[in-house]
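Project standup — Tuesday

K.O.: blocked on the structure for the chain from last sprint. Re-posting the sequence here as requested.
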Amino acid sequence: MKLIKLYLSILFIGLVAHSYSQNFKNASEYLDFVGKEHTAISRSMWNYTKAIAHSKRDKTIRGKRNVLIKTMERSIGKIQKANGFDGDDYKNKVLKQLNFNLDLLNHDYAKIIDMKEVAEQSYDLMEAYMLAQEMADKKMEEAQQQYETDFYAFANKHNINIVESNTDLSKKMEISNEVFKHYNEMYLTYFKVYINEIHLMDALGTSDLGAIEQSANALSETANEGLEKISTHKVYKGDKSIINITKEAFVFFKDEAENKVSKMIDFLLLQENFNTIKNTLDRIPERKRTKAQIDNYNEQVNLLNKGVKDYNKINTDLNKKRNILINKLNTANERFLAKHIPNE
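H.V.: unblocked you, prediction finished:
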């Protein structure tokens, strides 16, 4: 069953240096040089963001991530080879920030990718996965803030005026962060309910009546909690598409848990009772079987046959509705990202 992807936030703040005194031309040129490399990295980040939002192929997304890493490595190499200005203090600070972000991509985010592989096994693992994602994003944001502090300190030291630039690229990336934040919040709300349906399916597969009842109760409880939560969830720019389809999914889960599962349990009890009667009859030699025992067995066969038809009908109906909902949910999420994240 396909699940919705989860996404990492992207950080970018555009800064442009302008020197209004030829006396400080070399310092300004050095800032421009460093800024050019940061711009290259930011554009690569944006291409990665676009791939996440608009591509349906994991291979394309991985490819963009690899390009981002290579871009960072090239920029680090260029800055390392170039001479600093007024010593290497500022140069080393820039390299420290870039290497820190590269390490985040290669290690922290790599671990996050590994966590994603097991995140769908439980709500706790999914929550831990998203927390790790949030912590890694926070580290990158703190590194960016340190970069800005060092940037301004270098500029002030050399009397360079700094004009903050809210570029088109920075605007696009800011929008992306907002979109992914809304998307991930909705996904975690959905997953908390969805994982209980997975447990219910597993329990039904093993005909474990105790586990079925426990999972059905958990599914009912979380579905009701989910319906209450999304009723007050903030709508992103008037777009209720994800909220509406998530609500539809929760109504389905609620009906499944509260109305359909009890009928499925009835069948499993009927099947269990039939097996007991059959095993008992099988142990009695045919010549010693009474008419009442044979009539009871035949009656149970008829009840079981009807029960099989009813059970299969319920199961087929649930599977059909579930598949339709999952497809609608995936489509709604893809369209939501495509609609709100710029593709240029």
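K.O.: great, moving the ticket to review. The chain has two domains: 15-165, 192-340. The longest strand covers residues 15-18.
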